[in-house]
Amino acid sequence: MDHPRTGVAGDDLDVRDIDDRFAGVPPSLRPPARMPKWPFVVAGILLFLAATIAAAWPVDVPYFALSPGPVNDAGDFVDIEDRAGEDTGELLFLTVSLKEVNALEAFFGWIDPEVDLTPRENIRPAGVTEEELRRQNLAQMDLSKQTAIVVALSQLGFDVTLKGNGALIISVIEGSAADGVLRENDVLITVDGTPVEFSEDAVRLIGAYPPGDTLILGIRRPTDDSGTEFEDLTVEVTLGVFMGVDDEGNEVIDDERGMVGVLLDNFNVETILPIEVEIDSQNIGGPSAGLMFTLEIINQLTEDDLTRGRVIAGTGTIARDGSVGPIGGVRQKVFAAIDAGAEYVLVPADNFARARDAAGDGIEVVRVATIEDAMSFLATI
Fold this sequence. Notes:
Blueprint: H1 15-21, H2 38-56, E1 60-73, E2 78-80, E3 90-102, H3 103-111, E4 116-119, H4 120-123, H5 130-155, E5 161-163, E6 167-172, E7 187-191, E8 194-195, H6 199-207, E9 214-222, E10 230-238, E11 240-245, E12 251-259, E13 262-266, E14 270-272, E15 277-279, H7 290-300, E16 311-314, E17 317-318, E18 324-325, H8 330-339, E19 344-348, H9 352-359, E20 364-368, H10 371-378
Parallel strand pairs: 3-16, 16-19, 19-20
Antiparallel strand pairs: 1-3, 1-4, 2-15, 5-14, 6-7, 6-13, 7-8, 7-9, 9-10, 11-12, 17-18
Helix pairs in contact: 5-7, 8-9
């Protein structure tokens, strides 16, 4: 429409139009300048985003996010009073940050190539509390440390003893084969007549049977609240189908492997060592630092520097026979090693393919199946 004072079309005028067309006209007689629309559009978008974030933030979703965790120098955790020499490089052990996420965090995790999302039950099964899960992870770390000491000293020719007295049941998973048969604080001492020293023995022995098989488990059950008096008895358990997760947090169902459905700790582990070795793992849980702790102990007790001044990262469980076992979150650990500036990353043979894909050209990935493999590689650098 026309402007009432000037008769000039008022549509689509901006400040420059007014300045050009009304030069010399007193400001009080000029038509008002139209406000630009873009600030209102931007403000509307920001308000929408703020409202979306506010709405999504408290909404829990049934997922955990796996992301690269802190990188630690194993030398800062291992203390040997009579160490033989000083190293000029670093042996780094890698971790994964594991967090239950809300809807917004899940979205950002989904678009982040370094993060993997996995259903909550893959990490914390139904009926298992956060404290029970934490207890199992710390128990795995404790056994990993003890095993690392035994393997390292054995490699160096020392006589060592590591003896377990069964696998303590921390929790029974709801709906599993163990539900209603086994109880919290029972101690597994045999699987079909084969003795169980450690929790890893129970997992290995039970996993050797297919689902549907009925096993006779020897257990030691507390008869008082103090946990000092026990009775020995046997129970029958018909195995269910194994359900676990792979190293990216994806659910794995193995129709050929049986599962009881319990969380385990080690019961009354006895260690006899010729040298005092202390490993302070702080609040870090899980068994995957075993390989790097083993190498660090060997490094401190030998004159030669295994690192040759290099920064070497690694991950992997360690067994009493020196074999290196698979771990979870290998992609995240490789990303963490790259960010830490490591030149090499040692990974278990079972995780090698995924680790190499994640590494690209960022770091050299070294496949190790045993502690001897790791030592042989270190001798070549």
